[in-house]
UniProtKB/TrEMBL annotation:
It is an enzyme of class 4 (lyase). InterPro entries: 7-CO-7-deazaguanine_synth-like, Aldolase_TIM, QueE_Cx14CxxC, rSAM, rSAM_sf. This is 7-carboxy-7-deazaguanine synthase. The keyword S-adenosyl-L-methionine applies. Keywords: 4Fe-4S, Iron, Iron-sulfur, Lyase, Magnesium, Metal-binding, Queuosine biosynthesis, S-adenosyl-L-methionine. It catalyses: 6-carboxy-5,6,7,8-tetrahydropterin + H(+) = 7-carboxy-7-carbaguanine + NH4(+). It comes from Sphingomonas crocodyli. Mg(2+) binds at residue 52. Belongs to the radical SAM superfamily. 7-carboxy-7-deazaguanine synthase family.
Amino acid sequence: MGSYAVKEMFLTLQGEGMQVGRRAVFLRFSGCNLWTGREQDRATADCRFCDTDFVGMDGDNGARYRNADALADKVVELWGALSDPFVVMTGGEPLLQVDDALIAAFKARGVETAIETNGTQAAPDGIDWICVSPKAGTEIVLRRGNELKLVWPQAGIDPRDMTGWAFDHFLLQPMDGPDLIDTREAAIAYVLDHPQWRLSTQTHKVVGIR
């Protein structure tokens, strides 16, 4: 890939999953293969509950980066003078853009890499932490990684169908929205009955960070 379209990029703390609370540069790529990002298309999208703006390149440090080195340099700049830089690549769907060249550029700078993906695209080798968040009705090709994070409940998707996938951690995350109390209760009840799974919450929304 010759260039990379980035919606926004900023220093924060990881708010979800097994690495919650960890200092990270969040690198949000523009675009997704399951929804255009336009509200008028939500009802017919493959993913209808997304709560993220991933359209365009107008957020903090949003831009089209001309090559992998330019993008990796910006991540290191945002991390600052501290050691052990860590980037979380998200979207949208980051695997529409993340490629071997970008992973190599991060590795050359000593950056630890994580990705949050819907699992419908293959991942390049060398990513240090892979989190897959499946969406109902889509073909999941990435069934191996560190963390499976299922937003719950979703009509047409059964966690029992995923327990044999090759992940280190299985997380159930209550779907945000007007029915959050009900979805939280459903997720808690499921985890209590299925201890292979662990409850994941969106702590960044609780403490008020991005």
